[in-house]
Each structure stands twice: as C-alpha cells, then as structure tokens.
Amino acid sequence: MTHSSIAGFDFGTSNCAIGVMADAAVQLVELPAHGRYMSSTLFAPQREMMTAWLFKQLQQQQLHQPFQQARRGQLPASTRAMNELKLDGYGDSLEFGTSALAHYLEDPADCYYVKSPKSFLGASGLLPPQQQQFEDVVAAMMWHLLCQLDQAGQSRPDKVVIGRPINFQGLNSDDSNRQALQILQNAARFVGFKQVEFLYEPMAAGLAYQQQLAEEQKVLVVDIGGGTSDISLVTMGPDYLQQRNHQDLVLGYAGVRVGGNDFDIALNFQSLMPHLGSRLIQPSGKPVPIKPYWDAAAINDLSSQTRFYDTDTRRLLDSLRREPELAEVGRLLTLANERQTYQLSAYAEQAKIALSDQADTQVDLGFLEAGLLARVDQAQFETSAEKALDTIGRLADDAIAQAGCQPDVIFMTGGTSNSPLVQGFFRQRYGLPLVAGDNFGSVTTGLTLWANHIYC
Questions:
Q1: Measured on CA atoms in the order 117, 121, 122, 128, is the torsion positive or negative?
Q2: What percent of the chain shows pLDDT beyond 90?
Q3: Which of 69, 158, 269, 292 is the most buried (most CB within 10 A)?
Q4: pLDDT for 340-392, tens place per residue?
Q5: Are 309 and 334 in contact (CB under 8 A)?
C-alpha cells in the first residue's frame, strides 16, 4: 500500500484541510485555489440545482451510481432547475472558499450560500430531506477538495480519517452525534472514499504532543478556531490512543459558537465603528440607532448582513447623514453601498494580530473616506475581548467540573489560541503550564498520523 492512498481530513467549522504522508512525515496539501486551508463556505446560484451538479461531477468519474440511487427522487427536479439556470443566463457551477463569499456578495438576496455547514450537521429536528441537503453540501465540498488534490498532483486517497468534535451541537448529544456522523459518512462514500474512520478532534490536535509523553497526564485541550471553541479534558499517555477506548479518555467536554471571528467583530464594533458614527447623538438628543453598526460588524451572521444591506437600512442611513452633526454616518452608508463589511472586518482582524506584539496600531480606512485613519490600542482590544474570554473561561470551567479532576497542563490549538491575550488569560485563570501546538494544522496533522497508523 502506498501512503498516497490515505489522508487525514479536517472538515472544520471555519476551514477545511487535507493531510497526506510524504517521506514518513505529514504534509498539509497546498490546494491550488486556497492554500493549505479552504474557508468552509459554499455558493450555488440556486439551492435546487446542487444535487444535479454533484451527480454530473460524480458521473464524469464513474462514481455516480450510489448517489443516483440515493437521490433518484430529487434528481429530475434538480436537473430541470440547473437547465433553467443555464437558459436564463445564470452560471451552473458551485464556488468554494473565498470565491464562494465573493459570489455571494455580488447578490446576497438571490443565491444559496452556506458558511460553516459543520455547525448544522447535529441540529435537532432535521427532516430526511434536510439531512440529504447537508449530505450534498458536505459531499460537494469534499469533491472540490479532491479535485484540488488532482490539480496539486496528488493521488486521490481512498481511505480517510475525518475529525469530529466530542459532541456536535444539538439538543440531544447522542442523536445529534449519530445524525452528524451519518451525514459525513454518506457524503464521504458518495465522493469515493472506500474506508472512513473518525477521530475526536482534541485527540487529533494533541497526538503529536501525546507521542512525546512518558507518563499519564490530564490535558485540558483548548481549541479556539475562527467560529467555535471546543474545550476538552482528556487523559493522555504513551500509546493510549492505540490501547484504550477513545471515549473513555474524554473526561469532560464543552463547546460553544464563539471563536476568533467574535474577537474581530467585537474589536470592529468597539474601535472602528465609532469612526463611522456609532457614538454620535442626534439633534433630538437620542443616540444614533446602533443596530446598523452591529449588523455591519456581525459578518458571521447572515441575517445581520442581509439586514444591513437591505434598502430600508440604506434609506435610514441616508436620512441620518443629512444632519450636519451626523455626517460621519455617511461612511457607514458608503460601507453598505460598496458592500465592504468583510473588508472592514479583515482590517479589524489585522489590527488584532498587530496588537499581539505592539501597544497600538493604525487602521487605514481610506477606502471609506480619503485620509481616514483609526488608532486601535491594547486597552481597546482587551475591553472588546472581555465577553468572548468570559464565555470561553466558563466553558473551560464546565469541562473541568464534568471531569471531577484538575488538569496537569493546558494544550492550546486553533488560530485564536496564538493570541498573547488569550494565552495570558488561561495562565492567570489556572496557573498551569501551557503547551502550544500548530495553531492551524494540529488537527489535520493528527488525523493524518492516525490514518497512517490504522491503515498502513
């Protein structure tokens, strides 16, 4: 067996990545259209055409029969929808990653856009047609990544280990987990994986660390990604993954939809939105309406973004900016007219990163008004981060309480875990040594190592 037949697949809430073995070491594949990490987003001109699109892709590789059998009731209508799109002059292709976002922003009201589909796989009350819809979304994203492997000159793997949280988000954890794993399993089978295994993400993230251990440790694994935070207290030790039931190693777990994006949004709202008029007072003595400012900042909430770009919101902003005292509101109107909320959020993220090693930074808002600069300092960042850090701290307390024992060490992974503010928060809260993994690639690396262990 060649190592190219196996892979580790991180189907993450914020990003997706694939790892393969090369010369006895893990290699995260450089995806030609995305780099090592593809944003977990999908765009389709219309939801109804997705099944037909996926069937067409699979048919070209002679992999269509299982999918055709599973979707025999939906395929005729989906094919008609795709044909009608072409007749009407619309595209009939799907987009992924940053390209999906760009296509969505061209016309948010008339398309199908999914961000972080993993967050919904365990949702309670999904009917069979809805589960099938998510299978198609996941399968389409997996298929795209396999096509990216082709373009990168890599062989397509037929055996894969996919990461999974301890619990998918849903009202009943057992039912939610079964549902989510079935969706992932079916999607993986549709796109051609012959063997599919799952590994807990905190186990995967800490696998390289665990291989160095000579004795047992209780490890608090803190995984703060872009959209979610998952904290687990797990038992680690030499060869424990090979010798013990994985579920028995998990002593406590808690997860929440708060992550790096929430830090960016809070900093944006706290430090950048005042330069767009968020703290102005109307002639009546009342503050300007704050809702449009929050909606503009909340890029992880599609309903907020849709509301911000709505005609009624623009009409309100246009009315406000006509008051001499409220001219700065015109900058927010420009943001809406030019559809630049994601650009502003990206600047907030850059400011957050800059504040990791300096006391203050300047953000160039010249795209809204020539010469406009915003100064952002460490104190503003700390104030804006208080709510998210408090939520994550209580999450860690909950995981420790479930375990009924104290951790020996804290293992930190996920992009936001790299922040000195976040690391300082955990040091002060628990007084324990911190171990840092690869903040972005720990899970993918561990999944690939595990695939190499069980399949080779």
A1: positive
A2: 68
A3: 292
A4: 898 899 899 899 989 988 999 999 999 999 999 999 999 999 999 999 999 99
A5: no
Task: Determine the 3-state secondary structure of 27 from DSSP.
Answer: strand
User: Residue for token digits 């890599």?
Assistant: 154
40-83: pLDDT as tens digits: 999 999 999 999 999 999 999 999 999 999 999 999 999 999 99
Query: Tokens standing for 102?
Result: 């760009």
Say what the pTM is: 0.80
Dihedral sign of CA atoms 212, 452, 221, 386 in order: positive
CATH architecture of 3-202+445-455: 2-Layer Sandwich (3.30)
Low-confidence winner among 101-110, 299-308, 379-388, 426-435 (lowest mean pLDDT): 101-110
Determine the distance from the C-alpha atom of residue 369 to the mean position of all C-alpha atoms in its chain, rounded to a whole number: 32
pLDDT digits (tens, 9 = 90+) for 248-285: 888 998 888 888 889 999 999 999 999 999 999 999 99
Strands in 95-96's sheet, in edge-to-edge order, are 95-96, 41-44, 112-115
Cα distances (angstroms) measured from residue 332 to each of 268, 285, 309, 360: 13, 20, 11, 24
Whose CA is closest to 224, among 413, 39, 36? 413
> For the domain with range 216-260+385-440, which CATH number is right: 3.40.190.10, 3.10.110.10, 3.30.420.40, 3.40.1190.10?
3.30.420.40
With cut-offs at 50, 70 and 90, classify the pLDDT of residue 109: low
CATH 3.30.420.40 positions along the chain are: 3-202+445-455, 216-260+385-440
Is residue 131 within 8 A of residue 122, CB to CB? The reply is no
* Secondary structure string (H, E, C) spanning 395-456: HHHHHHHHHCCCCCEEEEECHHHHCHHHHHHHHHHHCCCEEECCCCCHHHHHHHHHHHHHHC
**Amino acid making up residue 51:** T
> What does 219-267 look like in DSSP terms, one character per residue?
EEEEEE-SS-EEEEEEEE-TTHHHHS-HHHHEEEEEEES--HHHHHHHH
